Amino acid sequence: MGLLQFLQKKSRVPSDSIKIFETSWSQSSKEISKVRHNVFVVEQSVPSEIEMDGKDSDCIHFLALEKSKPIGAARLQKYGKIERVSVLREYRSKGIGTAIMKRVIESAMDLNVEKIYLHSQMDSKIFYQRLGFIELGQIFYEANIPHIEMILK
User: Residue 142, Cβ neighbours under 10 Å: how many?
Assistant: First the structure.
């Protein structure tokens, strides 16, 4: 299945009560921060000074809400790097991460970037492979968590 077919097939949000939209840091920083703090700082013990790296204002952001509750987020650097993909634990394995990534990939394609890539935690590698990403290079560590660079093919 090609990328465009995948994006079309996976276009549905898992529930009518869940909305995923593109936003900015200035519009949605409070909601985005809640999700990222819970996932990265609380669950994964990433130091908050690493999680909050000062790059958010320069990124395109994506937010998933169930009614008004923030449940997922991601950001896209304008040169094609996807970062901070996060879904609250109780909402995982329900298609929300896939739906967020679909929106991010579509936005990245609209930017006509040279490549769309990310640094995947090793525990999430299979998730990204299912989305069409392939491994590139060797394992490295960010915030004491093993990662691998992956590029969308």
Answer: 11
Residues in CB range of 30: below 8 A, 6 or more apart: none
Length reported for the chain: 153
pLDDT tens readout for residues 93-122: 999 999 999 999 999 999 999 999 999 999
Q: What is the distance between the alpha carbons of residues 82 and 76, in angstroms, rounded to a whole number?
A: 5
Residue 19's closest CA among 9, 29, 31, 7? 31
Tokens, residue 71: 């449940």
pLDDT in tens, 54-93: 999 999 999 999 999 999 999 999 999 999 999 999 999 9
What is the pTM (predicted TM-score) of this model?
0.90
DSSP 125: H
